[in-house]
Specification:
This protein is mainly α and about 350 residues long. The chain has a single domain, classed as ABC transporter involved in vitamin B12 uptake, BtuC (Orthogonal Bundle). The radius of gyration is 22 Å and the shape is globular. The N and C termini lie far apart (about 85 Å).
Length: about 350
């Protein structure tokens, strides 16, 4: 039996597949942990989109909201760190008052930008796709300009959150160790995202709020006839969704990295929209799609850090690094091409609602 793996390795193509499976199993701990981490901003953007579109409002501005919140969170935390001076981090997640205030500032900024989008979409009743595009373009220009202004300041920075981490004994438990390591070896925003997905799924399909939200996205006039204020409901949900996108921006500048960079969202908001569609406008489905899109990044990072040996390593050595950078977007396009026609959005999604006159 010991000769079977070697014999399979020698078979062209099949041998490469067998070697790839062996490589994935051998490196499942770092690949899975990286995949979950990279999926966090995509999942949060997707959840923001789910909350908006289930209410009947299209939100194309996820990229812009995340970018603004990444800048606001980083700058606020840097200002507080400079004012308070060096402080010992808390034992859990390496959190400091500056980082916590930065996250709070990012959430406030996300809700304010979402309030702008809600006003444009619900009250002004402009085309919602155009409104979101305005936010994206404006966010890229404003954050780039502001970052240029503040980059000359002597900001010390507030550092970053650290992963919770799991003991090696737990990470190596057969069958489930890799899963526990992937879930628990995350920072506070990453762990919060997983909790939000579970709570959001239950609330959307098992609560009065969820029933009203889904009804407002399907048949708002029927909802209005039973005494529910559709406009207020949509406002509330769009503003609340801004906090989700804000956490995605804060993750980029305070958990994944230590500082803001121009256009650091790098298309994650748009991939989040794709994850929302692939996940059929459900929180768990959107999170699963985010994991699928992020798996390409997890694999590419693993290959860069610990390249495989043998024939598989030789094959990968001929693949340019740009291919791995583009792979998440390629997967997004391929999956969307086969899913978009089969996924049905809420019936009133993107349609401005106007109350009938009393006369």
């Amino acid at each position: 039996m010991s000769g079977i793996p070697g014999a399979l390795d020698a078979i062209p193509l099949i041998g490469l597949v067998f070697q790839l499976m062996g490589y994935l199993i051998e490196n499942i701990n770092p690949i899975s942990a990286t995949t979950v981490a990279v999926s966090v901003p995509i999942a949060l953007a997707a959840l923001c989109g789910v909350m908006c579109e289930r209410s009947g409002v299209v939100n194309i501005g996820l990229e812009g909201i995340m970018l603004i919140c990444a800048f606001v969170g980083w700058y606020a935390s840097a200002l507080v760190a400079g004012a308070l001076g060096p402080e010992a981090p808390f034992p859990l997640f390496g959190a400091t008052p500056a980082l916590l205030i930065g996250v709070l500032a990012a959430i406030v900024a996300g809700m304010l930008v979402s309030l702008l989008h809600a006003w444009l979409s619900i009250s002004a009743r402009i085309d919602q796709i155009i409104g979101g595009t305005i936010i994206n373009i404006g966010a890229a220009g404003i954050t780039g300009y502001l970052y240029t202004l503040v980059s000359g300041q002597s900001l010390t920075g507030a550092g970053q959150f650290t992963p919770l981490g799991v003991p090696q004994e737990v990470a190596t438990v057969p069958l489930v160790g890799w899963l526990l390591n992937a879930v628990l070896n995350q920072g506070p925003i990453g762990l919060t995202t997983i909790i939000i997905v579970i709570i959001f799924q239950i609330m959307l399909f098992r609560s009065r709020w969820g029933l009203r939200t889904r009804a407002a996205g399907e048949h708002p006039r029927a909802v209005e006839t039973v005494g529910i204020d559709v406009i207020r409901l949509r406002y509330r949900n769009v503003v609340m969704s801004g906090a989700l996108a804000a956490l995605g921006g804060a993750w980029l500048s305070m958990e994944y990295g230590t500082q803001f960079q121009a256009n650091m969202t790098n298309g994650r908001g748009f991939i989040g929209l794709a994850a929302m569609i692939v996940g059929r406008w459900s929180p768990v489905g959107a999170f699963g799609a985010a994991l699928l899109f992020a798996s390409a990044t997890g694999l590419s990072l693993s290959i860069t850090i610990s390249p495989p040996s043998g024939d598989l390593g030789n094959v990968f050595s001929y693949i340019p690094s740009e291919f791995w950078d583009a792979l998440p977007y390629i997967i997004t396009i391929v999956i969307l091409a086969g899913v978009v026609g089969r996924s049905i959005a809420p019936a009133a999604d993107g349609q401005p609602y106007e109350r009938e006159s009393a006369s």
